Amino acid sequence: MHLQIPRVGIGMDASITPLRHGGLSLVQTTDFFYPLVEDPYMMGKIACSNVLSDMYAMGVTDCDNMLMLLGISTKLTEKERDVVIPLMMRGFKDAAAEAGTSVTGGQSVMNPWVTIGGVATTVCQPNEFILPDSAVMGDVLVLTKPLGTQVAVNAHQWLDQPERWNRIKLVVTEDDVKKAYARAMDSMARLNRTTARLMHKYNAHGATDVTGFGLLGHAQNLARNQKNEVSFVIHNLPVIAKMGAVAKACGNMFQLLQGNSAETSGGLLICLPREQAAAYCKDIEKTEGYQAWIIGIVEKGNRTARIIDKPRLIEVPAKEKDGELW
Questions:
Q1: Among 4, 11, 49, 79, which residue has the least CB neighbours within 10 Å?
Q2: What's the gap between Cα 132 and its chain centre?
Q3: DSSP secondary structure string for all residues of 107-173
Q4: What is the pLDDT at residue 202?
Q5: 4: pLDDT strictly greater than 50
């Protein structure tokens, strides 16, 4: 039984180490990055969600312990430091508590840049994780968070940079950008825990989380890891409302529609049996109030992934509701 487990090793989202204690495996992952939003509390939440995502991508829903990794910038004044750092730490701890785990230690260093991240560790039985390698022909690909976080964060920074803002102001208003930024923060801070739990219920054949390499990069990585000779074809791109238009107005700077735009703490990209995918998406919406989308198919192939020439852009949400983010 242990023979096929070490094959996961490093390579996909979390490392899985069979323990010398009967039938248990150690699942571990780590991640850290630089601030990308202005709110230190939200930054902490996003960093924690991002660490846990790698675990959730393996279908693991319970994390036993977290450590925090913190770089405190030498460029902050003492006053700034006393405000910003505790807020970041609180955001990180609150997201960990939401995930049903706690932060019991870590390390902080002085650094030219602020960085935040952590380590997530859990001990699992074999039925608690889903190896990311069992997609079969006829499966569909489901994505659980919209794309466009990097575009939204950048567009928000450009509100103060006239030469950049002039490039996109023909396709979006200031309010559009502020709302997209709020949506991006909300999405990045959201845990992928429910989506991981439901992977078991709907017999997922493997998943990965969409982060820095963009949708296509992560889809290619997942395709490369498959046991069967399959390929992924993506037809639909769910994108935070108006961000598709912003990306187009910037020429090819973000490569959003090519699937190469970086996402931070994005959704899970999951291979699901075709007949269960719609029910999976409905269940997420019922449980969490957030949408998930069938974005492509698994066909016979040589372990590659591609996006069709003119993918369908899905605006998320499809229509604005007053006073509501989604």
A1: 79
A2: 16
A3: EEEEESS-EEEEEEEEEE-GGG---TT---TT-EEEE-S-B-HHHHHHHHHGGG-HHHHHHHTTT--
A4: 98
A5: no
Look at residues 173, 254, 178, 177 and name the one whose alpha carbon lies nearest to residue 214: 254
pLDDT of residue 132: 95
Say how many CA atoms lie within 13 Å of 242 toward its Cβ.
Answer: 22
CA–CA distance, 101 with 96 (Å, rounded to integer): 5
Distance CA 57, CA 317 (A): 24
The predicted pLDDT at position 21 comes to 84
DSSP 212-225: TTHHHHHHHHHHHT
pLDDT at residue 267 in the model: 98
Q: Residues 215, 216, 217, 222: is their CA dihedral positive or negative?
A: positive
Angle between helices 193-201 and 274-288 (to 10 degrees): 140
pLDDT in tens, 107-163: 999 999 999 999 999 999 999 999 999 999 999 999 999 999 999 999 999 999 999
Q: How many CB atoms lie within 10 A of CB 175?
A: 9
Tokens, residue 301? 């192939």
Per-residue pLDDT at 49 exceeds 80: yes
Residues 46, 153: Cα–Cα separation, whole Å? 13
DSSP 322: T
pTM for this one?
A: 0.95
Could you report the per-residue pLDDT of 74-98, keeping only the tens digit for each? 999 999 999 999 999 999 999 999 9
pLDDT band at 13 (very low <50, low <70, confident <90, very high): confident
CB-based contacts of 45, cutoff 8 Å, min separation 6: 91, 92, 94, 95, 189
Contacts of 169 (CB under 8 A, 6+ apart): none
- Residue 303: left if φ>0, alpha if ψ -120 to 50, beta else—which one? left
Between CA 26 and CA 135 the distance in angstroms is: 24
Sequence-distant (≥ 6) Cβ neighbours of residue 175 within 8 angstroms: none
For residue 205, give both structure tokens: 């054949």
